[in-house]
Design goal:
about 650 residues, alpha+beta, Butyryl-CoA Dehydrogenase, subunit A, domain 3, Butyryl-CoA Dehydrogenase, subunit A, domain 2, 2 domains, acyl-CoA dehydrogenase activity
């Protein structure tokens, strides 16, 4: 059942809305963009950038304070048990300035760099992931970040001091029948004098239950004097007509304050509009360019914890006369966790430092970090549960009740699962990154495959494409990766960089061949595009791991061990890359489509016989028709 308020839009309109929201210019270089084009620009990431001394000192001082708070004031078991972060814990976070980590000091914030903000999230997320989610939703996508990038000075002066110390913020985009397709957004903001009148329902509003300030995406109808389109607003959560109708519960992140928020004739001053009308999605996507780094940062923290538990448990637990870590079947899992944690931290630190320096465009790097981090974080947690065996499946409370160490392995598996969905599911991230990866091709040859373009347009596009490919294709034939003495300053890791360079050119050739083969149907080949992106993610992670290892060696900071971890990771990644290259052309994509068609038409309905469905009654999608709320307001601001 579809909510009656949902807008019906064509596939073409949906794509046009998404395309219009993209940042379409590349004003700064991008390592990942060049990688997908077959150009291994090592100079963009090496030598590894480092934070300024003052930034590092300020960051380390806060990390020390935060670590003490995590160890003495956060009771993760209580949060899991009560499914709520205690108010006194949130008050304590406010007192130490954790709400204002990313907010400039002139507004009362701490002014941390992206590097130290992410280190802080990794730390607090290890104490309890729900707290990490609260702080991340507040600062990475809530009110502070869009105002920092797009807000007026008056808006910054009004709202940022509140966000730095007292007020929790939330970001509201998703609706009951609108996920990653914003063209169908149904929440409306109708101009009325000096105000907008807001009506609609928002789903999965992280922090929404306790928020004081909301960033709301709503559609402004086009009218005289109003351009219209999806627009961003700052809305007071306590405003008349705002109702939190439900606090949602999930398989993980049990302490998260996530709800359903209804707006009924809510008056929002025009002064609270962020940017011009119609700029809402562009604001959201630009905010996420660095905001997405918070999720892989917390996955780094999870990986570090998984490694600690795997090490301690595997040394203590014996089977067949020796510790289980010495059995190859278990040891390979420990090696995977250690190597992947090192690489993932390298990806996040490198991307964060590049964001701080603002020399490079990191939109693809941040998206790759989010995709790779969320997938690898889940795998590391899954391997930890397997290493722990039955104890990995048992809850921490149950372990403690029978006298064993309360290790919440099953909890971290549940908590990390949402990261593959949060802020763009892995499937959507694949498509988003793929669109950016083929941007250079579409910019020169897009009109050739556009059925609505005239013959004249196609002719001009053919000439433009011919010039581009005449220069580009020959460069994909040979490169530094084929020379045995290239990158020798990296020692034993040089071979991995040569592999990355060769693989990048192969990746670009494969993409070009696919575009030539499928042309306008390329966008439907989501399996192929996903593998292209996964190869790029592995190559980016390999590059980051090698550059970080060399940086640590140069600074004499665990350099030998870092080189060993980078070497192991790269060898593991190369196996995955080689498999992905093979699956570009040898796969079951066509057969899968036939099976899906049969499933949807009921051809295989007989296969579902022999079970009962324990699901409850009700529509698949809740009715989100605008109107007054008929439910109790469960909003509970923390003061």
């Amino acid at each position: 059942m579809t909510a009656p308020s949902t807008r019906n839009v064509s596939e073409r309109e949906a794509r046009q809305v998404a395309e219009a929201a993209r940042e379409q210019d590349w004003r700064k270089p991008s390592f990942a963009k060049e990688l997908f084009l077959g150009r291994f620009r090592l100079d963009l990431i090496h030598p590894h950038p480092t934070p300024a001394t003052e930034d590092a000192q300020r960051g380390e001082e806060f990390l020390a304070k935060l670590r003490d708070f995590c160890e003495t004031k956060i009771d993760g078991a209580r949060i899991e048990r009560e499914a709520q972060i205690p108010d006194e814990t949130i008050d304590g976070l406010k007192e130490i300035g954790a709400l204002g980590m990313k907010i400039d000091t002139k507004y009362g914030g701490l002014g941390l760099t992206q590097v130290y903000y992410n280190k802080a999230l990794a730390l607090v997320g290890s104490a309890n992931p729900a707290i990490g989610a609260l702080l991340s939703a507040h600062q990475s996508i809530g009110v502070p970040q869009p105002l920092k990038l797009f807000g007026t000075q008056e808006q910054k002066d009004t709202f940022l001091p509140r966000c730095a110390r007292t007020d929790i913020s939330a970001f509201l985009l998703t609706e009951p029948d609108v996920g990653s397709d914003p063209a169908r957004l149904a929440t409306m903001a109708v101009p009325d004098g000096e105000d907008y009148v807001l009506d609609g329902v928002k789903l999965w509003t992280t922090n929404g239950v306790v928020a004081d300030l909301l960033v709301v995406m709503a559609r402004v109808p086009k009218s005289e004097g109003h351009k219209g389109g999806i627009t961003a607003f700052v809305v007071e959560a306590a405003a008349e007509g705002v109702t939190v109708e439900n606090r949602n519960a999930f398989m993980g992140l049990r302490g998260i304050e996530n709800g359903v928020t209804r707006f009924h004739r809510v008056r929002v001053p025009a002064a609270n509009r962020i940017g011009p009308e119609g700029a809402g999605l562009k604001i959201a996507l630009t905010t996420l360019n660095t905001g997405r780094l918070s999720l892989p940062a917390m996955c780094v923290g999870a990986g570090k914890w998984c490694l600690k538990i795997a090490r301690e448990w595997s040394a203590a637990r014996e089977q067949w006369g020796k510790p289980i870590a010495e059995h190859e079947a278990v040891g390979s899992k420990i090696s995977f966790i250690a190597a992947t944690t090192f690489a993932l931290e390298a990806v996040v630190d490198l991307s964060s430092q590049m964001a701080d320096e603002d020399r490079n465009d990191i939109r693809i790097e941040a998206a790759l970090a989010k995709l790779y981090g969320s997938e690898m974080g889940w795998l590391m947690a899954d391997e930890l549960v397997q290493i722990r065996g039955g104890r990995g499946f048992e809850t921490a409370a149950s372990l403690a009740a029978r006298g064993e160490r309360a290790v919440p392995a099953e909890q971290i598996l549940r908590d990390l699962r949402i990261n593959r969905i949060f802020e763009g599911s892995s499937e959507i991230m694949h498509l988003l990154i793929a669109r950016e990866a083929v941007d250079a091709h579409l910019s020169v040859a897009g009109d050739l495959i556009d059925p609505e373009k005239s013959l004249g347009d196609k002719g001009r596009a053919a000439a433009k494409a011919g010039t581009f490919y005449a220069r580009w294709l020959p460069k994909l034939v040979a490169g530094p990766g084929q020379l045995p003495r290239t990158y020798t300053e990296f020692g034993e890791l040089a071979g991995h960089l040569r592999y990355v360079e060769r693989a990048a050119r192969k990746l670009a050739r494969s993409t070009f061949y696919a575009m030539s083969r499928w042309q306008g149907r390329m966008e439907t080949k989501q399996g192929f595009l996903g593998r292209i992106v996964d190869i790029g993610a592995e190559l980016f992670a390999m590059s980051a791991a090698v550059v970080r290892a060399e940086h640590l060696r140069a600074t004499d900071d665990h350099g030998r061990e870092a080189h060993q971890l980078a070497d192991v990771f790269c060898r593991q990644a190369r196996i995955r890359v080689d498999e992905l290259f093979g699956r570009l052309w040898t796969n079951t994509d066509d057969l899968d489509r036939k099976v899906v068609s049969g499933v949807l038409t009921g051809t295989y309905a007989w296969l579902e016989e022999g079970v009962v469905d324990p699901s409850g009654d009700g529509p698949w999608i809740a009715d989100a028709t605008p109107g007054p709320s008929a439910k109790e307001n469960v909003h509970r601001p923390i003061r």
